[in-house]
Design brief:
Order of helices and strands: HHHHHHH
Number of helices: 7
Mean pLDDT: 86
Number of strands: 0
Radius of gyration: 15 Å
Length: about 180
């Protein structure tokens, strides 16, 4: 275990890795899937609220930045005319299931439920972008995923109390961002 303040290093890495993706989005170099990026902002921010309710400390900042960076990219995608907003059946299914999970959390108001449904919603939002990254890797920028892995890894190394609230979302991000990193590299 390392000092909990190292979470700030991970948060900064995630932010600067996201800036690379943000600039590429604004310049039209890459084409973010707006459905995925919107849900990637909503789900982690929901999990962040759940972590706060469960008393997670500074590690919750790692989850916050995981949602904040996609929010910036989602907003920037409206400047990029090449960004995808064509909604196909897969996007609809993933979006409905993702939002349904968030509604279920809202109904239960239990922090760990928010984290669990944040994970489920975020994972479903990965499907359209993973599909796009597999077939068109040139439309992605791996930096946001590389630094996402670094952020989650650092935050996991700072955990003192290993319970679901402290590690659930971060472990999920470590695994899924690793997959996206390798698909887009």
């Amino acid at each position: 275990m390392i000092n909990q303040n190292f979470v700030i290093v991970g948060v900064l890495l995630q932010f600067f890795g996201g800036l690379s993706y943000l600039v590429d989005t604004l310049n039209g170099k890459i084409k973010p899937n707006k459905v995925s990026w919107f849900l990637w902002s909503l789900a982690p921010l929901t999990a962040f609220v759940g972590e706060i309710k469960q008393g997670v400390g500074i590690q919750s900042l790692a989850t916050f930045i995981i949602g904040f960076v996609p929010l910036l990219i989602f907003i920037a995608s409206f400047v990029n005319r090449k960004a995808e907003w064509k909604i196909n059946r897969l996007d609809i299914i993933c979006g409905i299931l993702s939002i349904a999970g968030l509604i279920l959390w809202y109904i239960t108001r239990v922090g760990n439920i928010a984290i669990l449904f944040g994970i489920i919603a975020d994972a479903l939002a990965y499907i359209p972008t993973l599909t796009k990254a597999y077939y068109y890797p040139e439309t992605e920028n791996p930096n946001v995923y590389i630094f996402g892995v670094a952020n989650a890894g650092i935050a996991l190394l700072t955990i003192q109390n290993w319970n679901f609230a402290n590690f659930g979302f971060l472990l999920y991000i470590l695994i899924f961002d690793s997959m996206k990193m390798f698909l887009t590299w």
